[in-house]
Amino acid sequence: MSRTNVILLAVLLTAACALPFIVSNYRTFQFTLVLVYAIALLGLNILTGYNGQISLGHGAFYALGAYCAAILMDKMGAPYWVTIPAAGAVCLVAGFLFGLPALRLEGLYLALATFALGVATPQLLKYHHLEKWTGGVQGIVIAKPEAPFGLPVNADQWLYFFTLAVTLGMFLLAWNLLRGRIGRALMAIRDHHLAAESMGVHNALYKSLAFGVSALYTGVAGALGAIAVQFVAPDSFNIFLSIMLLVGIVVGGLASISGALYGALFIQFVPNIADEISKAAPWAIFGIFMIGFVYLMPTGVAGAVRLLLARRRSHEI
Question: 228 with 49: CB under 8 angstroms?
Answer without folding.
Answer: no
